[in-house]
Write a structure and sequence with these properties.
Layout lengths: L1 E6 L2 E7 L22 H16 L4 H11 L32 H16 L2 H11 L3
Antiparallel strand pairs: 1-2
Helix pairs in contact: 1-3, 2-4, 3-4
Length: 133
């Protein structure tokens, strides 16, 4: 039987199942800290707001957009550009930084998507053509 080990959603290794012990150092320089708020809480809040703002049919597009941009990590930082948070705002201070509560990041992203693309599906169409939104 194979066991799959994932870290941050990325496949690290597939190996024969056995008990292993992993030691994680208390601090790693330049590491992105764990998300503020459990992912399920973040997704649940966002889903409610997207359905309220755009309708249920737009949820899958918003979910896809956030997965592409930050993997639902409100503390995600793009090392190349400095974009940050759930929406990967650039510059990062548009959302107030990575310490901004996820609810505020989602509200900012809703406003941005609405102003620029009208809907999450519109943002995904743009992203599909250009690789960014």
């Amino acid at each position: 039987m194979l066991c799959t080990i994932l870290v941050g959603g990325l496949l690290i290794i597939e190996t024969q199942c056995k008990q292993i012990e992993i030691t994680i150092p208390p601090k790693i320089e330049n590491a992105v800290q764990a998300p503020t708020g459990a992912k399920n809480d973040i997704v649940e809040y966002a889903k409610g707001r997207i359905i309220e703002e755009f309708g249920e049919g737009e949820w899958e597009y918003f979910d896809d957009l956030v997965m592409r941009e930050s993997g639902w990590n409100p503390r995600a930082v793009n090392k190349s550009s400095g974009a940050c948070g759930l929406p990967q705002s650039l510059p990062c201070n548009k959302i107030g930084g990575v310490d901004t509560p996820y609810q505020d990041q989602i509200e900012w992203m809703i406003g941005y998507v609405k102003d620029r693309y009208q809907t999450p599906s519109g943002a995904i169409k743009w992203h599909n053509r250009r690789g960014w939104y």
